[in-house]
Amino acid sequence: MSDQSSGRSPTPSLHRDTLAVREASERSQYGENSEALFLTSGYVQPSAEAAARRFAGDEDGYTYGRYGNPTVASFERRLAALEGSEACISTASGMSAILMMCMGLLKAGDHVVCSQSMFGSTIKLIGTDLAKFGVSSSFVSQTDVAAWRAAVQPSTRLLFAETPTNPLTEVCDIQALADIAHNASALLCVDNCFATPALQRPMDHGADLVMHSGTKYLDGQGRVMAGALCASEALVTKTFLPVLKSAGMTLSPFNAWVVLKGLETLDIRMRAQSARALSLANWLQDHPKVARVFYPGLASHSQHALAMAQQSGSGGAVLSFEIKAGDPQQARACAFQVLDSMQLLSLSTNLGDTKTLVAHPASTSHGRLTEQQRQAAGLNQGLIRVAVGLEHLDDITADLDRGLSLL
User: Fold this and answer.
1) Residues of the chain with pLDDT under 50
2) pLDDT score at 331
3) Is 162 helix (H, G, I), strand (E, B) or coil?
4) How many other CB atoms are there within 10 angstroms of residue 89's CB atom?
């Protein structure tokens, strides 16, 4: 096999639950049942001629740890199978996956259309950092299909959205954005971190690429960092692999092994955490100190029907809520009081853990944005995000109510 060829998806004859447990690279001669962890930076070649052919890409075989690893390849095979893509390529983090995508697809003079509700670091990378190299961008309303269409330019090469968004859980119409992209001879990438392939497969709705921060639900227990892009075989091998080899945003074998094993329980975790999130959203919606709840699983969500159609009838495991307050200063103080009153739940900006994680986006994950960018994204100082874990619902609500009841 070549350095990354085992990132290809198999024939989709098995159910996704089975693929999540069974799909991987071939067993070694030792017949291990749990996928092996190969900790090596280099590979011994059978001959000088074979080494030359392998480094040239004319013969299958591993050559160097930055280019490929059997454990990393197992993770890529499994995620590709779950997303229904031809291939997958992994990276050291979700943000490095986005960087690899942009480096592979874009050049000076190209244009990107991006949701203004994207993760804060994504907005900065595309809107500020890439601008230094001549790549322009337009940020539009996540939910306004007409705005996406109007933002397309002759130089547009990529449309990029996440659905649901972080932290307001806005949902985009994947098929509608795919049609816009393809009519402009551009590609659509969807960040699928929140829903994961357990709930949503963007390629089934027309997306060309799917981006993942494996740090989140793919691992599921907050242990490691990882990223990945699922795409066609041609994009992975001809466009992204050369960038990976040169830039070195390589996923470590140990982290790949951890996320590979995390995928085995992805479906049951997502179902259980989503069920708790729906119950918590209903509880918060009825709380006298809460002004508004953002959760696609609620009938009150403006895109509830679309979310249910795209996300297998589930709202996912992340929700946000706004605290009632008179002005931004009071809202921030009230949010901080709720967070500082918690005794059980974790004050953490990560998500996707089995532990419930609670955060204040305006001062943390989206803190690097300007106030104008935060307002455009609908983020106010009274907003709290909850990534619901697997604790008992009564314990989750009691810990949140500890601070809410004092407001």
Assistant:
1) 1-2, 4-6
2) 94
3) strand
4) 29
How many C-beta atoms surround the C-beta of residue 29 within 10 A? 5
Residues in the chain: 407
For residue 377, what are its two tokens? 């994204």
pLDDT of amino acid 4? 45
* Strands annotated E in 56-192: 87-91, 111-115, 136-140, 156-162, 187-191
If you search the block for the tokens 């070649």, which residue do you land on? 45
| pLDDT of amino acid 25 | 86
CB burial of residue 177 (10 Å; 0-12, 13-18, 19+) = buried
Enumerate residues 6+ apart whose C-beta is below 8 A from 261. Answer: 34, 35
What is the structure's pLDDT at 8? 59
| Residue 322: strand, helix, or coil | strand
* pLDDT tens-place string over residues 266-321: 999 999 999 999 999 999 999 999 999 999 999 999 999 999 999 999 999 999 99
Whether the CB-CB separation of 111 and 137 falls below 8 Å is answered with yes
Position 12 scores a pLDDT of 58
Are the C-beta atoms of 159 and 182 separated by less than 8 Å?
Answer: no
What is the rounded average pLDDT for all residues in the chain? 94
The whole-angstrom separation of Cα 306 and Cα 279 is 20
Q: How far is CA 176 from CA 4, 48, 206, 379, in A?
A: 32, 52, 9, 25
Tally Cβ neighbours within 10 Å of residue 347: 12
State how far the alpha carbon of 120 is from the alpha carbons of 57, 333, 369, 399, in Å: 38, 22, 7, 28
